[in-house]
Amino acid sequence: MLTDLYTRRALIFAFANRDFATRYRSSILGWSWSLIQPLATLVIFAAVFSLVFRIKAPELGNGEGSSYAAFLFTGLVTWNLFSGLLTLSMTQLKSSGELLKKVQFPAWAPVLGASLVQMIQVLLELGVLVIMFLFLRNISWTWTLALPILVGMALFAQGVGLVLSIINARFGDVMYIVAVVLGALYFLTPVLYPISMVDGQNELLSWVVKLNPVSWYVEGMHDAMYSLVAPPALVVIGLLVGGFLTFWAGFAIFNRWSEDIGEML
Fold first, then answer.
1. Which sign, positive or negative, has the C-alpha torsion 245, 247, 248, 250?
2. Which of 69, 82, 128, 203 is the most buried (most CB within 10 A)?
3. Model confidence over 169-208: pLDDT tens digits?
4. In 82-99, which positions are buried (b, 16+ CB within 10 angstroms) versus exposed (e)?
5. Integer angstrom CA distances of residue 14 from 34, 92, 111, 117, 169
6. Cα–Cα distance between 94 and 126 in angstroms, integer?
C-alpha cells in the first residue's frame, strides 16, 4: 500500500490541485465558504443548544468558566473531518467515472486527491479554533496532541470512505443510506453535548455513544484542546494505529473490488 501511494504521489497531487482549483470556482467568495459554512453552523447550534436547550459545556481547562461555542466547535472540527471524507469519497469516485473509462489509472487517486483538499479545509477550521482558545486564554502543551488525533481520524474516515465509495459504485442507494446514517450518528457522537450527559440517562444509549469510534476521536480532541487534559499515551497511539489499520483495510478492499470500476461507473 505504502509503495503504491508513494509511486503514484504525483497523480494524487494532480487530482488534489484539480479539486482545489475547481471546488469554489464559480463562487464570488471562493474559499471563504470553507470557513463561513462551519462558522454559520456554530452560531446557529450554539444559540439553539445553549439558549433553548440550555446545555452547559464543561469547565475550560484554564479554570476560567466555560464556553459552549468553543466546546461545540472543537467537536465540529473533528466531525467535519469524518463526515467530509466519507461523503467526498463517494461523490469523487462517481464524478471520475467518465475519466476512468478513457484513461487507466488507480481509481483511488482522485478520491485521495480530493481528500487532501478536504483536510486543508479542516486545518483552516483548526486555525480558527486555535484563535478562539487564544482569546479565551485556554492554552496548554496538550494542543500538540490534536494533530495525531486528527491524523488518526482522517485515516479512519478515509478507510471507511474507500469501502463505501466502491460499494456505492455498485449500488447507488448507498450514498443516500449513508446520509441518513450520518444524520443519526451526529447525534450519537458527543459533539453537541458533553459525554457526561448520557451517563445515567439510558444504559443502552450510553453504551452506543461510548462504543461509537467517532466519539473516541471527538473526546480526544475535547480533552486536548478544551479541557487541556492529555489523553493517556496508549489512547493516542491506539487512535493512530486504529486509524491506520482501518485505512489499510479499506485500501485493500478498494483495490480488490475496483478492477472493473470503469464499467460500473
1. positive
2. 82
3. 888 789 999 999 999 999 999 998 998 888 777 778 889 9
4. bbbbbbbbbebbeebeee
5. 21, 14, 12, 11, 23
6. 29
